[in-house]
Structure formats: C-alpha cells, structure tokens
Amino acid sequence: MTSLNCEQVGNVRKNIFLAYKTLGVVFGGLVTSPLYVYPSMNLSSPTEADYLGIYSIMFWTLTLIGVVKYVGIALNADDHGEGGTFAMYSLLCRHADIGILPSKRGYSEEEPFLHEQSATAIRPSKLGKFFERSITARRVLLFMAILGMCMLIGDGILTPAISVLSAIEGLRGPFPSVSKPVVEALSAAILIGVFLLQKYGTSKVSFLFSPIMAAWTFTTPIVGIYSIVRYYPGIFKAISPHYIVHFFLRNKKQGWQLLGGTVLCITGAEAMFADLGHFSKKAIQIAFLSSIYPSLVLTYAGQTAYLINNVNDFSDGFYKFIPRPVYWPMFVIATLAAIVASQSLISATFSVIKQSVVLDYFPRVKVVHTSHQKEGEVYSPEINYILMVLCVGVILGFGGGKEIGNAFGVVVIMVMLITTIMLTLVMIIIWRTPPVFVGMFFIPFVIMEGSYVSAVFTKIPEGGWLPFAVSMILALIMFVWYYGRQRKIEYEMANKITMERLGQLLAMPEVQRVPGLCFFYSNIQDGLTPILGHYIKNMSSLHTVTIFVTLRYLLVSKVDQRERVLIKRLGPRGVYQCTVQYGYADNLSLKGGDDLVAQVMRCLKRHIAMSTDRRSSVSTEEEIANLEAASLAGVVHVRGKMRFYVGDDAGCFDKVMLRSYEFLHSICRSALPALGMPLQQRVEIGMLYKV
C-alpha cells in the first residue's frame, strides 16, 4: 500500500511538473491573446453596454470552447497520446474502412496489437458503413483532415507574427518617435531568433520558456484585478448571457461583424489538442483549468473594466490598462511572453507535419526526434525555415496588428469548426455516444462556430485571404503527392514480381548467387517490387541472403515492439520477406544502419530457430550459419530509385538504388567479375526520393 501511495504521489508530481512545462509550449498563443484582441476590433463609438456584451461573448467563448470542448471532450479523442485532426482521422480509419490509399486501409482487424479493441468497436456503425460505401464521403473526410492540418500550419505562421508585433508595439506608447518600420524590424529579428532555437528541441525550449510564461500568466490577472477594483467592480455581472442578446439586438450587423475580433480570445486553443503528443492529457488539463483559464477571465475583465471608463482606448487596449509604475516590467514580460507564444503553434505544426508524413499524405521532409523520453517531440528543419520566412514576410508585408488579426481570425475558427465535425464523427463511429448527447454537443458548437465563421469571412478581402492562400497551396501539394503515391502503388501492384517469376529469374543460367547480405527495400507488401526484375536482369546476380524489407504504415500511433518486425521465408533459398511496421507517432529511422541490421538479424534468427516451415533440406543450424556468413561478407542496402550505368552504351539499370560506396565496391568485387565485365567509365547516382 505504501509503494502504491508513493507511486501515486510520484505521478501527481510528474503531472504538475509537466503542467508547468506546458506553459512554455502549449499555451503561449492562448494566454497572450489579450495583447491583440481589443486592438483587432473595429469598434465605433463603443458604450458601456457594448463592452459588457463583448466581455460576455469572450467569457462564454473561453468557457464553452476552451473548457467544455477541448479540455472536457477533445483531449479524450487522442490516438495513443497523439492529438490533432490527423490523429482523429487515423482513429476513424482504423475503426471503419474509410481510408483512401490502399496501403493504409484494412489493417485494424488483422493486427494482433489491435485486438484490444472490443467487438463492438470493431463492428462499424451505420455512419461508418455509409463512409465505407461512399468514396465521395471518404474523400470529403480526407479533405477535412488535410484542410485542418493546413489551417493549423497557417495558425503557426500568424500566431508568432501577431503576438510579437503586438508586444513590441508597446514601445510606441512612451516613445512616439519609434516608427512603425522599426517595430516591424525588431519583431522580425526576434522571430528569427525563436526559429533558430527550434533545433534544440521542445524540452530544452520549454525549460527556458516556462518561467517566462508563468510570470505572464500570474502577473496579468493581478493587473486585471487592480483594474477591476479601480475602474468597474461590477464587471462580472457581464457573465450573464442576456448581455450577449442585448449586444446583438442593439448593434445588429456591426455586432455580428465584431465576432471576427472576439474570436481571437480563443486563439491557440487548438494547440492544446495538437500538442498532446508533446505532453500528457492530465498535464494539459491541470495547466488550463488551474492557471490559463482563470488568468484569461481576470485579464479580459480588467481590460474591459478599464475600457468602460476610457471608451476610446481600445486601439491599444492592453498597454493602456497597465498602471504606469509597472509599465516597463510588464512590457518586458509581454515581449518575452509573445516570444513564447510563438512556440505553441510552431510545436503543433511540427507534430501535424510529422503525422501526415508518416501517414503518407505529405512529401517526405526530414523529421528529427529531439527527445529520447517523449516520442512526440519532433523538429523539421525544412518546415522550420519555411515558417520563419513566412512569419517574417507577414510582419513586413502586413505591418499592422489589425490587418494580421483579420487574417488570424479565419484560421482560428476554421480549425475549430473542422475539429468539431470530426469530434462528432468520433463520438458516433468510435465512442458510440447516444444521439441525444451527440446532438447536445454538435448543435450548440456548430451554431456558435458557424456564426464566427460567417463573421470572419467578411474579412477575407482585408487580409483573411492569406491563410486561405497558404492552406490551398499546402492542400495542393498534399493532393498532388497523394495522387502520385496512388499511381506509384498501382504501377507496382500491376508489375510486381511473383514467387514463380523470381524462381524463373534465378533459374536462368547466367544468374549467380554472390556472397553477402542484401537488404532490398520495397513498398510492395503482396509480392516483390518490379525493381527486382531490372536488378537481376542487368546484374545477373543475387546475394546469397536477400531480405526484402517493406515499410508498413499502420493507422495507429505506435506499434508494439514485439510486432515491429515480421519475418517470412520466401520460396528460393536464402530469400526472406521482412515487414517493418510502425505508426505515425513512432520514432523509426530506416537508414540502413547497424541498428536496423542487428534488429532484423535477431528477428530472422529467431524466426529460423522457431520455424516449422522447412522448404529445403537445409537444417536450422546450417541456415543460421549461412546467414552469419553472408553478414560477415558484407551488408548491402538497395532502395529507392537510382540509375546505374554499365557499358559503353550506358545501358540503364533503372530504379535501383546503390546506397553507398560499399555497395558499389561489392558489385565491382563480386557481380561484375563474375560476368566477365570490367567496371565501365560512367556511374551515375541520383536519389529521386527518400524512403
């Protein structure tokens, strides 16, 4: 009992420490929103009643979307600790056969590590069967997942820009001589520094950023309480929803348009879900409910209380309500907090890019795992520098925070509406939630978020076009990649090498088995890659031990290590099929290194020792000895698409990757002399895509 209590205490301490770290990574964009919400609104002669209505809208937006939707519901729709629209998409695809790419569909019932699902969960619901029957519905679902990811990346571009720019604008209050270009240049320089820090990983970044964010989170509500007491102690009467009704009845169309500004109070909430892989559900819930939510409620109340007594100061609604004695300390904290705010959406962007790359819906960019303890902590150099260029471009191109706010609102609410729709599908297809409760969730949130969407769409000509342009470009890239992958899979399946054909190729008199161990990488799971035919015909050889390695993407977040490598003996002697399985949250790097060779060799030896399928007269001991001898003779890796030219006529050995100089040397040493061929003058190696 004592050990159990110690373990519980340890878990509590761990969650509290993780909750503290989330301040520097997850909540930066959300908790710094007071910097730009009021300045982004196009208010015209506002009154006390207008400000009370605006605060009531912000309070209920934070409560319903932040507390109820994300903390109470969305964080429970994780896929083994991973969050975001693609995590929900993978959940839906795994519980119903609604994936698009053939290689991504139909695994859920056959995988041993998925048997933990109940029989009820495996049987698709009526809605799931509808998606299975309708290719149009499946494509719409994929489009929503892709659009959600693209919008989140747009959020990752705009959050750093508007946060830092709004904070640095504070210089112009005490120093009116500071020009707008100077503010823009300082903001751009700060953001470049933030992006250059990303390569050190989320843990190191959050260790530096969390104290800053904690200072912001706990000082702004103190200033808010001071403002409430001094300017308008009765501000919390605005919690009553009737102030919202009166606001819209009084302002009509203008009140509806102002929703495009109030929606910014919930910016960064999606990062709670998308950054789930970096931390834990419990830590994010603790941090939001104990610090972020109270801080925002009190800060907005203090701002509103000040503005009720100074109705025309909304264009600088944050710095104007800061008392003069603490102006400069708060300016420093605000600037540092704005830098931290950039981190939440940058980390979320890395997470969703990694998920979509592994699920094969995005071109293969480099993804670096920056933590040995937390698989979800990733960094992509290419994406990082693209984000940096776009963020700096937004600052220099738009300049003003109001213009960026117009673009920002479109991204924020579109991502949330997509999350609401996909959460509803998860409730129906996976959780089997009763229809009454599904309706209680779906109807209010669609009405609320739909109202926000209709309001922000009016701002598309005023800057809202930017996130749409970025999202459409990204979506185009993803769909072109998806289309190309489909065509590639169809070609390989139509031209695959069967076991019978392999036997015929090896039976040709000119084909010899040369010493060595060859890893032959392929995307074919049923049959062998067409590249093999070119390889054998042009080289007239095959290594004594050849292992065909197939990467198998599964619609799960992680694959059990016991199911990671699956071995199967193929027909010819010394030829094996190796399937390496992994999910979108797994840290798997297949670079032909010693780790992969050692892991596959261990699994292959175990398979040979335990196998009862003896297809030849070779004993178990002799087969293992042949395997070890081949490994000692040299390991060769063949994968991807390469061209190897031999002969004066540059005959093309197409689509075969010669991975390294070692492989070239092994060909010179074994295959070419056996053919009586000298090594010719021309060798061209050009990688066309990454595996």
TrEMBL record:
It is found in: Membrane. InterPro entries: K+_transporter, K_trans_C, K_trans_N. Keywords: Ion transport, Membrane, Potassium, Potassium transport, Transmembrane, Transmembrane helix, Transport. The keyword DNA-binding does not apply. Its main location: membrane. The keyword DNA damage does not apply. It is a multi-pass membrane protein. Residues 515-690 form the K+ potassium transporter C-terminal domain. The chain crosses the membrane at residues 18-39, 51-71, 140-162, 207-229, 255-274, 286-306, 326-346, 383-401, 407-430, 437-458, 464-483. Residues 19-502 form the K+ potassium transporter integral membrane domain. One of its GO terms (molecular function) is potassium ion transmembrane transporter activity. GO terms for cellular component: membrane. NCBIfam families: kup. Potassium transporter. Belongs to the HAK/KUP transporter (TC 2.A.72.3) family. This is Potassium transporter. It comes from Aegilops tauschii subsp. strangulata (Goatgrass).
